[in-house]
Write a structure and sequence with these properties.
heterodimer, A: about 325 residues, alpha/beta, Rossmann fold, seven-stranded parallel β-sheet, 16 strands, B: about 250 residues, nine-stranded mixed β-sheet, two-stranded antiparallel sheet, 13 strands, about 30% strand
Chain lengths: ~325, ~250
Amino acid sequence: MSTLVIVEHDNKFIHSATRNTLSAAIALKQDVILLVAGYQCQAVAEEAAAIAGAHAVWLVDNAVYEHQLAENMAELITSIAGSFTAILAPASTFGKNLLPRVAAKLDTAQVSDVSRIIEKDTFEHPIYAGNAIETVKVLDATKILTIRTTAFDAITESQSPCCIERIDKSIQESSTRFVKHELSQSERPDLASAKIVVSGGRGLQSTEKFKLIEELADALGAAVGASRAAVDAGFVPNDYQVGQTGKIVAPSLYIAVGISGAVQHLAGMKDSKVIVAINKDEDAPIFQIANYGLVGDLFEVVPEFIEQLKASR
Amino acid sequence: MKILVAVKRVIDPYVKIRVKADNTGVETQNIKMSMNPFDEIAVEEAVRLKEKNNDHEIIAVTVGPDASQETLRHALALGADRAILVRTEKHFCSLNIAKIVQKIVEREQPELVLMGKQSIDGDNNQTPQMLAALLNWPQATFASKLTVQEKAIEVTREIDGGLETLTMSLPAVVSTDLRLNEPRYASLPNIMKAKRKVLDITEYDTLGLTLKEHVQVISTTAPASRSAGIKVTSVSELINKLKFEAKVL
């Protein structure tokens, strides 16, 4: 039997989260088939076939799957599920939206946000905003898992491409229609996979002043994140949010500026290798988990930080 | 239109949780409980829809022990018209909860089901999608904007790269994200009024469901703790430490 990995992509490129998911799939020690479903997405299938560890790629190219709507995708995956004992997707908004629908169609449980694979049926995942780790054993024959991407190393090695098998599945299309995307444009690295992340909180006070965080990020080649307070106050768009309800990050270096460190925020970043906190309140909870803390006014500290980084170049 | 809102009683989000010493779970005795914050947003959205169209009826539903009545009373105080408790002492996985709610949906025949995108205890983010699948209804997850038309809805969803807008026919299941609205507080007169609203109790055993166990919890442990590091006194010291001690710059 084999493992199915649902590839997340935009019909042109593979999303990097798929490479972490493949890494988890390989840990299950079965042949891994990658499913690329989309429209005019041959390039994605070719990219997938060349990732080390892929055993085969199944390509379903049809206008019905252009926007990978959960309703249509779930029909497709359910129809091919019989060949697999494990179905994996990244725990991104794409995977979270899709996989529980597949699980219910198959009358199978799902384990969300798997952070460790212990056995082929036993998994660890965080609960209570990362304040507890639950180990669960799945009793169903098929294991359906969304993978916490920061807990598994992305596979970046290539192989000579495996075979791409075109399959054609007609499904009963649902009433759901795609209207539009409004995507944030950014030249910076992707937040979820960046090596360095600089995040700002309520302490930044305004959208204009939040630019300071962006300048620091650019000086470091980092991605920009934010606390919920900064998003709710409208300083930055919501897809910048790091935390229990936003993105989970685990970079080598996380710099929290003007963020107090509420439980919900820590849930999204406490697995970072090195945490730096810059805050004027020396009792802020963020200092309890920061490797390096600097107590001071961010409006003085951050410009100095940027200046010294530029000077040392 | 009938709107069903599913709510859950969870440990209050501001409580610092403790893992039990025998690793069988999290301490819940004598701990403050509240309505799951995402479900409060779902109730608020239903109430706002009703404020625009008085023909709507809002039914709050939960699955759990007797104490879950408090959570339903809170939903009634926020503006739900009536409530249903499916009473059980058993603990169910998301799929089984979805099957129980499916029974209530089949009985009540709502056109719209509103739910929080995830509960802050299990953090699973599964039940709305599973319910939609079981009913074979369309789903709009992580909604930050909802517009209800005659027989359809338009929903803006929060996705990793930004926002996505979809339309779908009713009936449908919608799960709420934090940005959908700002829930109101229950006023004292509304809390008093809520005591007189209908709260039906359905025993789980009378639903005629035979649910199998899908997952077994082996243990619950505390995560590896991070120790507090050091405080530096200047930016240059910080840069030095990051370069030469932590080697991350």
